[in-house]
From TrEMBL:
Protein name per its UniProtKB record: Aminotransferase
UniProt GO MF annotations: transaminase activity
Top-level EC class as recorded in UniProt: transferase
Cofactor: pyridoxal 5'-phosphate
Amino acid sequence: MSKLIGKISQKMKNSKPDQILSFGASISHVEGLIPLTIGEPDFNTPTHIKQAAIDAINDNQSHYTDSRGIEELRKAAVDFVARKYDIHYDADAEVIITVGVTEAIFDTLAAILDPGDEVIIPTPAFSPYFNCVEFFGAHAVEIDTSKDGFVLTPAALDETLKNHPKAKAIILNTPNNPSGVSYNEEEIKALSDVIKKYDVFCISDEIYSELNYEHEHTSIAKYIPEQTIVYNGVSKSHAMTGWRIGVIYAPADIITAIKSVHEYTVSALTANAQFAAVEAFTNGRDDGVKMREIYRIRRDLLHQGLTEAGIESVKPSGAFYIFAKIPNRFGDDDFAFCRRLATEAKVGSVPGSAFGKAGRGYFRLSYATSEDNLKEAIRRIKKFVGEN
């Protein structure tokens, strides 16, 4: 051990490893495991998008780019959300391209948070939200949505904001990871009516926006654009997780603050990946729609299989996850249950507690895998539950 380990930043001493990644790694050695842990499309990136990257390389697009992202991509990203979701931005002043939404989360919270601030997070929620909030010396205030079908109600939000005057932001994620719940237009409008009463940022993570099964996606930025910071990208909609392209949309003065953190962190993105994303947002505008129909079939297959196994879950209306309730006889230690499910049934899942206190007693399964894998996983889960 280095003699300087004691001089490591206190922030790092207090930081925790991401539980989703660490748990996945802890069960990866299980031979024959069907991993339903990964939040990643199992499709290949569409050929026309890959060709755009190849063309960019052949055209010697291998130099530093504008730190905000190349102009073509910023314009394409703005046009995409304008056409799809009726939200409108200036490509020169209100958009930044980031290294995935993970960087977007870090940059945004670095730009807006001070030590002692609070951030409202409806839970269960994506674990990096909590990690980043705490990293910057702020505190996450969880709203347990489990008793309301994993939907944040306006009343619960209003009460929480009233009781937490230090709150600087609320983070919404629709469709949601891990529950698969998505908010319809009426629900989004009702939440916006609450948020506009308070001087808080609304960080709206919409990376799964193209994967809505029951209704069209509605962005809260449509109603409170001056308060909203929107995240989107091509990772989930176009099977481009490894390309690392995220987008932040926000009012110009907020973007200016975030831009400084972005430049300190990454300077500029990989050039050819940006040209691939231009193709995705333009000629591949509806690529996600084709994938969504396949996910819908998988969702129905897995949800029905879990129901037959006696496992309760809210049927997802978006994304590609099912957040299932652990049967009572197993107790509510979701980490112990998921370890047993991995080692005894050889099915990989993620403990619900990784997504906040409201997730205790649940486990997340991803159906971003083949139907054959899902059918076999269902068979194994039924056998495991039936024998225990």
